[in-house]
Design brief:
Keywords: cAMP, Hydrolase, Metal-binding. This is Phosphodiesterase. Pathway: Purine metabolism; 3',5'-cyclic AMP degradation; AMP from 3',5'-cyclic AMP: step 1/1. It catalyses: 3',5'-cyclic AMP + H2O = AMP + H(+). By secondary structure, the protein is mainly α. The protein has one domain (about 75-395): 3'5'-cyclic nucleotide phosphodiesterase, catalytic domain (Catalytic domain of cyclic nucleotide phosphodiesterase 4b2b), CATH 1.10.1300.10. It is built from 20 helices and no strands. Helix 7 (about 125-135) runs antiparallel to helix 13 (about 215-230) and helix 10 (about 175-185) runs parallel beside helix 16 (about 280-295). The longest helix has 27 residues, at about 370-395. It starts with about 25 loop residues before the first helix and ends with a helix.
């Protein structure tokens, strides 16, 4: 069955401790031991908060989104922002504050309504809202980067991409719903550490998914678990829901950064041969995968003030992993050593080897639309600013070992990292 069906397995959230997740040694030991009592204890530790939320939600005790409990001024500002949700300079941090930390739920309710998905799929509004709350709750708010605000940011970017004429002219309601759901849930229950960390600590998720797309598989299975628990799609034919679940998996698994070159090569081939047929569901699905990959790593393409915040957040998450590795006397992962890996050097490498190649191809696909040109311009300006900051760091500290250029080993590291 599913890796995550609440009440049947211990593969639930890793967020219950004071750090990204419960002590990984405890999890590993209990996974290997046959002590039923200890297993039950760990399961309770892992599951209590999730079940607490779910039971309250399913009994209908939790009120409607906190947005409706806000001061009218905040409500008015949030509504005004939603009227401009298709603008690339949308400030998701401000929107999250205006909605009292409910940016993902509020955004999703608005977009599902705006795209006519509620009517088309005959979705129950109360059930839909509860599902969105479940998704938002399953992100770890203590993660500096992989949290519900990141999910909301990716969802807003996906909305912008779905409106690009080259794609929008062919999209079906199913495509749009899948794109928005995958964006919203693509990092759900992220533990705040990357795949190499889970593998080297023999984490139960790494064992479960045999060290392949460990986090992405978990995000997908977690999403399916919540979809089934909420019964949001229970009124649809079984073959339709099964197809939705599989396509969600295909989209979320595409965000694995280890598969970056695979998708780039395929996209380049399609563009060079001009053989994309968006009337074909398979080609549309591939471009939805590319759109989600772009949305997931679009931070360097945002305006500087927003892009800088995201850069600092993702590096803070890296550094926390490095601190955790140091605490347990493990080798500190590349990019996770705050003493050696600076924010500017990490960002310059990420932009050069991961972001630029993908967004240049995306611009080629869209036909260099105003949005694509805008994103590439931001990307180039932001990269120049990071180079300037790196130069200042070198000037102030001649002993700094960083050159501002990403070495071959650093490039390889970037390709092994979980998508920042």
């Amino acid at each position: 069955g599913d890796a995550r069906v609440r009440g049947q397995t211990g593969v639930v959230s890793e967020r219950r401790g004071s750090y990204p997740f419960i002590d990984f040694r405890l999890l590993n030991n209990t996974a290997l031991s046959g002590e039923v009592g200890t297993k039950k204890k760990v399961k309770r530790l892992l599951s209590f908060q999730r079940y607490f939320h779910a039971s309250r939600l399913l009994r209908g005790i939790v009120p409607q989104a906190s947005l409706y409990l806000l001061d009218e001024d905040y409500l008015g500002q949030a509504r005004h922002m939603l009227s401009k949700v298709g603008m690339w300079d949308f400030d998701i941090f401000l929107f999250d504050r205006l909605t009292n930390g409910n940016s993902l739920v509020t955004l999703l309710c608005h977009l599902f309504n705006a795209h006519g998905l509620i009517h088309h799929f005959q979705l129950d509004m109360v059930t839909l809202h509860r599902f969105f709350v479940m998704v938002q709750e399953d992100y770890h708010s203590q993660n500096p980067y992989h949290n519900a605000v990141h999910a909301a940011d990716v969802t807003q970017a996906m909305h912008c991409y779905l409106r690009e004429p080259k794609l929008a002219n062919f999209l079906t309601p199913s495509d749009i719903m899948l794109g928005l759901l995958a964006a919203a849930a693509h990092d759900v229950d992220h533990p705040g550490v990357n795949q190499p960390f889970l593998i080297k600590t023999n984490h139960h998720l790494a064992s479960l998914y045999q060290n392949v797309s460990v986090l992405e598989n978990h995000h997908w299975r977690s999403t399916i678990g919540m979809l089934r628990e909420s019964r949001l799609l229970a009124h649809l034919p079984k073959e339709v829901t099964q197809d939705i679940e599989q396509q969600l998996g295909s989209l979320i698994l595409a965000t694995d950064i280890n598969r970056q070159n695979e998708f780039l090569i395929r996209l380049k081939s399609h563009l060079d041969n001009q053989d994309l047929r968006l009337e074909d569901a398979q080609d549309r699905h591939f471009m939805l995968q590319i759109a989600l990959k772009c949305a997931d790593i679009c931070n360097p393409c945002r305006v500087w003030d927003l892009s800088k915040q995201w850069s600092e957040r993702v590096c803070e998450e890296f550094y926390r992993q490095g601190d955790l590795e140091q605490k347990f006397e493990l080798e500190i992962s590349p990019l996770c050593n705050q003493q050696k890996d600076t924010v500017p050097s990490i960002q310059i490498g990420f932009m050069t080897y991961i972001v630029e190649p993908l967004f240049e191809r995306w611009a080629q696909f869209t036909g260099n639309t105003p949005l694509s040109e805008n994103m590439l311009n931001h990307l180039r300006r932001n990269k120049a600013k990071w180079r300037s900051l790196l130069h200042k760091q070198h000037s102030s500290s001649r002993s700094n070992d960083h050159s501002g250029q990403v070495t071959g080993s650093q490039e390889q590291t970037l390709n092994e990292e979980e998508t920042p």
